[in-house]
Amino acid sequence: MSQQFQYHGTLEETSLAEMFYTIFRHRVPGLIEITNEGIVKRITIHDGMVLHASSTDRADRLGAFLYRTGQLTRETLEETMRKRRESNARHGQIMIEDGLLSPGELYEAIRGQMEAILWSLFAWQKGEVAFKIGQLPAPAVKIHLPMRQVVLRGVKHVPDVKALVANLGRRNTIMSPSYAIEDLLEIALDQDEYALLRLVDGQRNVYEICSQGPFSVAENARLLYAYHVLRLIRRVEGQNEPSTGAIKIRLKADRKLPGS
């Protein structure tokens, strides 16, 4: 792909959630490549879907994922790795031939591995980002995750809640709904997530929504940020907000905010 069709940025400048939503809005296919401390993780995107995820981190390999999730013992993992070195066959092929996994089970394992790579990226607080725009060859295994679902689920893995909610405004910033019901179907909100969204009514402020929501204050704040990125909610215009005093929250499930 030509170098001119690339976007370069950093996670410090723009959150991954915002990057994903921008790509979703413009429906551009391509490859996101994020580098941090020598590790490179790549996400393939097409038609508003995440199709594939890969990583150079040894901890993200299929065998390591299966061991970490209890699907392979240490001894079995070492034996399959030995056979892989000797035969140069794919790890998944060896596990099928040895009767460790059925083809269907292998697909689900690879899907879980790629999702784990994807969610791990939302935990990165720094990294160099390159988005290479253009049609790519179809990967052998595709996961077809709608990008708006990726934003919602990915934000739950962000460790620094304060950095997220600072983008919402102040604790007294009033939020109003700006969604259509059909948007919620593809995003696939569950009952509690929808209950939090329903608290956004053009009357309650960020402090009240985070305090009254069905989850912990930190989780409510994460989801509220995701709703804002996804354009399900917006700030009410014309508010007289102080120029200082960004939102502060306790990262505990005590449902209180400092200053209450």
Structure description:
The protein is of the alpha+beta class and 260 residues long. It is built from eleven helices and eight strands. The strands form two sheets. A six-stranded antiparallel sheet has the order 1-5-2-3-4-6. The radius of gyration is 21 Å and the shape is elongated.
What's the short story on this structure?
This protein is an alpha+beta fold. It has eleven helices and eight strands.
What are the main properties of this structure?
260 residues, alpha+beta, 2 domains, six-stranded antiparallel beta sheet, two-stranded antiparallel sheet, 11 helices, 8 strands
Into which percent range does the helicity of residues fall? 40-55%
Q: Write the element-wise H/E pattern from the N-terminal end onward.
A: EHEEEHHHHEEHHEHHHHE
The low-pLDDT segments are: 241-260
In terms of structural class, how would the helical and strand content be classed? alpha+beta
What integer is the average pLDDT? 88
Tally of contiguous helical segments: 11
- What is the rounded Rg? 21 Å
Strand order of the main beta sheet, please? 1-5-2-3-4-6
Overall body shape: elongated
Measure the end-to-end span: 54 Å
Write the layout of secondary structure elements.
Blueprint: E1 6-10, H1 16-26, E2 30-36, E3 39-46, E4 49-55, H2 62-68, H3 74-87, H4 91-97, H5 103-122, E5 128-133, E6 145-146, H6 147-155, H7 161-165, E7 175-177, H8 181-187, H9 191-198, H10 206-212, H11 217-229, E8 233-235
Antiparallel strand pairs: 1-5, 2-3, 2-5, 3-4, 4-6, 7-8
